[in-house]
């Protein structure tokens, strides 16, 4: 099967990770981001597609989530074309989608279809344990965000972080500044990837996104 040639997806975005807020990976005003708080970063990302299509196939209303982990000890040597440590991930695609829609979502959000997703973050995906259809429940209401993905992911915002400067994240893109938050309890568990993570009172980030095949 060929990957979609022309596509675009846009909507809302929410992520959580085990860094301290404000996540040091973020750009704060003119200050560039750096390494994660701890040597290992565990995370869950979510996208609610408000409008989108791939090669004419409608993707509006569908949801996608990505659970992952990376270890700074895996960082490539200086000067590498991909200077960040590789991500090890599981992608969850909306179980309500058709098999063709699910395939399109996987190609887009894993970077196989190129475009913004590849340039923003998917270029550092080093290992994909699985792509799984799942029940994905997302509420991206400001400062009340929630991610629930089957029995795999549970996360929610506890309160927003006040900042005097704009905060942005490279995954949705620095042209989409948003709101840093502190989370309540977070749980990420997937036996196929050997993920068994949990924390509370760490960082999250919410904004909108717009990805397309044309960077």
Describe the protein's topology.
Blueprint: E1 7-17, E2 27-28, E3 40-54, E4 57-58, E5 63-71, E6 87-94, H1 99-109, H2 115-120, E7 125-134, E8 136-139, E9 146-149, E10 153-160, E11 167-168, E12 179-183, E13 186-190, E14 195-199, E15 203-212
Helix content: under 10%
Are there runs of 5+ residues with pLDDT below 50, and where?
none
Share of residues in strands: over 45%
The structural domain count equals 1
Question: What is the average of the pLDDT values?
Answer: 95
Task: Please describe the biggest sheet, giving its number of strands, its sense, and whether it closes into a barrel.
Answer: 13 strands, mixed
User: SSE order in H/E notation?
Assistant: EEEEEEHHEEEEEEEEE
CA radius of gyration: 16 Å
N- and C-termini, Cα separation: 23 Å
Content-based structural category = mainly beta
Number of strands: 15
Work out the helix count: 2
Basic shape: globular
Short summary:
By secondary structure, this protein is mainly beta. The protein is 8% helix and 47% strand.
